[in-house]
Write a structure and sequence with these properties.
Blueprint (H helix, E strand, L loop, with lengths): L2 E2 L8 E5 L7 H9 L3 E5 L2 H8 L2 E2 L2 E5 L7 H10 L8 E5 L4 H9 L4 E4 L4 H27 L2 E7 L4 E4 L1 H9 L22 E6 L2 E12 L2 E8 L4 H8 L3 H11 L4 H8 L3 H15 L4 H8 L5
Parallel strand pairs: 1-4, 2-3, 2-5, 5-6, 6-7
Antiparallel strand pairs: 8-9, 8-12, 10-11, 11-12
């Protein structure tokens, strides 16, 4: 996956994408003064290329640009599991409802109309980067522990699920009834319940943690599996994937690994995607935790 710039710096990073970046000089100056590191891309394709190297804390994205539109750029960002968590705020002169709706449908979290009001954008950006960072840290903490979370209502309808939970629910048969908790997990809706379920090689323990919101219940899913050495053996990593994971466990960045192994950062990212899938994890931290002490 691309390297997170903010992981090595206390300053949050924002990527500003606009085909006329010079017109946003005042905004970029204000963002720098507010404590952000600002990266600039002149079009959607350039933005995607930058995202192969750096994962920003947020993206300010012009909706209408020559070539790849902002809407399509956002869709591609959200289709990449390593980038989907980044909040995208659209900037555009289009203010009619259909355009606003298209922005949210593409995956945007907010919408500001040009000419932008600098103080308003900075305030909105602060809120979204803070919330996204909290959510990311919580997700990584759960993932490292080999767990996932699901929020369901009293009818068993899924209100929210973590990415790892989505994968496990699909393997339990949730795709047969989209949006509903699989029947095998029905008993877990009882207060204080702890349920074990089995689907092929997947063994899950599901614990009812009580009320999450009014009329909603929080379920904690944990996979029951062998020790880290067993998981690594079962993953059947290729020699190259093992090398990449070994350097990851040593704390090396994508760029470091690429230089050490003589490949591009994009190739490193592809190897990591395969490694995450084979190990059943979603983050660098989770993969490194499994490999630490075994390959490092």
């Amino acid at each position: 996956m691309p390297e997170s710039t903010s992981a090595t710096s206390e300053r949050p990073v924002v990527l500003v994408v606009d085909d006329a970046p010079a017109s946003l000089g005042l905004l970029c100056d204000a963002l720098e003064s507010a404590g952000y590191t600002v990266l600039v891309a002149g079009d959607g394709q350039m933005a995607l290329e930058q995202l192969e190297l750096v994962v920003p804390d947020a993206i300010l994205l012009d909706a209408l640009m020559p070539g790849l539109s902002g809407f399509e750029t956002c869709r591609r960002v959200k289709a990449d599991a390593t980038l989907a968590h980044i909040p995208v705020i659209f900037m555009t002169g289009l203010s009619e409802t259909p355009h606003v709706v298209e922005g949210f449908d593409a995956g945007g979290v907010d919408y500001v109309v040009k000419p932008v009001r600098v103080q308003e954008v900075v305030a909105r950006l602060h809120t979204h980067t803070r919330n996204a960072r909290i959510a990311r840290l919580a997700r990584e903490a759960v993932d490292v522990a080999g767990m996932a979370t699901v929020v369901v209502d009293t009818q068993g309808r899924i209100a929210w699920r973590s990415p790892q939970a989505a994968d496990w629910l699909a393997r339990l048969g949730a795709e047969a009834t989209p949006g509903l908790l699989p029947p095998s997990l029905g008993p877990a809706l009882q207060p204080g319940a702890v349920v074990q379920v089995l689907a092929g090689t997947l063994r899950l323990s599901v614990r009812n943690l009580g009320s999450a919101n009014l009329g909603e219940t929080l379920l904690l899913l944990a996979q029951e599996r062998g020790a880290p050495t067993d998981r690594l053996a079962e993953a059947a990593l290729t020699p190259r994937e093992t090398e990449v994971l070994s350097w990851l466990a040593k704390g090396k960045t994508n760029r470091d690994i690429a230089e050490i192994l003589g490949m591009s950062p994009r190739t490193v990212n592809k190897h990591l995607e395969h490694i995450f899938e084979k190990l059943g994890v979603e983050t660098r931290a989770a993969a490194a935790a499994l490999a630490s002490g075994q390959l490092a």
